[in-house]
Amino acid sequence: SKYSKGWLERKKVTVSRSTYGDYASIFKVYALPHFGNIPLCQVTHRDIEDFLDKLGALSAKRKNNVMVPVKCLFNDAKRRGDIKNNPSELIRRFKEEKPQIDPFSFPEMKAFLDAVEPHYVAYFTTAFLSGMRPNEMLALKWLHVDFDMRCISIREGRVQGIEGPPKTLSSFRDVDMLEPLRLVLLQHRAASPQDALYVFRNLHGNPLGVDNLRNKVWYPALKKAGLRMRTMY
């Protein structure tokens, strides 16, 4: 318990705020109730396996996510010379099931855009025709939309209200702006305040929140269009 607190404090300056929050939550909810105040040097490989067994019905993906900060803590402890052996070293990742992809057909896409609240047509047209992730679209600024070069530059994302650069280099990219999307965004730019920072805002002019967007816009539009339920991704 004491070591994990110190480790989290060190991590606070090296990881994003959302990642730090995830790590802190994992220790509070899963790791500390199991390991308690066992000295770090006394934790064994068997202890780690017992910990994973007690995670029970959690999905393979969630178990792997839980193990990320746990493994990282033991890796750092060994590197710092605080322990001689890393009990998590031979723990393998659980095999994750690939998510079921359920893309829209073009008729479904049109039906959705006809049904969704007009204020959000530009957002969802961009989602359909660019392949951008929701967190990237929430943080998209007009300065990263180049109508002359016909591209959208992905440079930021917003997770849990916190903006920052993408986690991986491959996520820094330029997305081609297809002509149908360019026309929609040109109209959207003309209808937006000239001093608007964000491309997509809510009805009150504030930055979009993914939960409200999903629950108050996405699902109602699917229902109105008579389309089967899908995740907003």
Describe the structure.
The chain is mainly alpha-helical and 233 residues long. It is built from nine helices and five strands. The strands form two sheets. Strands 1-2-5 form a three-stranded antiparallel sheet, with no helix packed on it. Strand 1 and strand 2 form a beta hairpin. Helix 2 packs across helix 4, helix 5 crosses helix 9 and helix 6 runs antiparallel to helix 8. The radius of gyration is 22 Å and the shape is elongated. The model has no long low-confidence stretch (mean pLDDT 90).
Characteristics:
233 residues; two-stranded antiparallel sheet; mainly alpha
Q: Write down the secondary-structure element order.
A: HHHHHHHEEEEEHH
Shape: elongated
Main sheet summary: 3 strands, antiparallel
Q: Quote the beta fraction.
A: 5-15%
| Helix/strand class | mainly alpha
Report the average pLDDT across residues. 90
> Which stretches of 5+ consecutive residues score pLDDT under 50?
none
Number of strands: 5
Distance between the termini: 37 Å
How many DSSP helices? 9
Work out the radius of gyration. Answer: 22 Å
The percentage helix is 40-55%
Strand order of the largest sheet: 1-2-5
Concise synopsis of the structure shown:
The protein has 233 residues and is mainly alpha-helical.
Summarize the SSE layout with pairings.
Elements: H1 2-11, H2 17-35, H3 45-53, H4 60-79, H5 106-115, H6 121-130, H7 134-138, E1 145-146, E2 151-154, E3 157-159, E4 162-164, E5 173-176, H8 179-191, H9 210-225
Antiparallel strand pairs: 1-2, 2-5, 3-4
Helix pairs in contact: 2-4, 5-9, 6-8
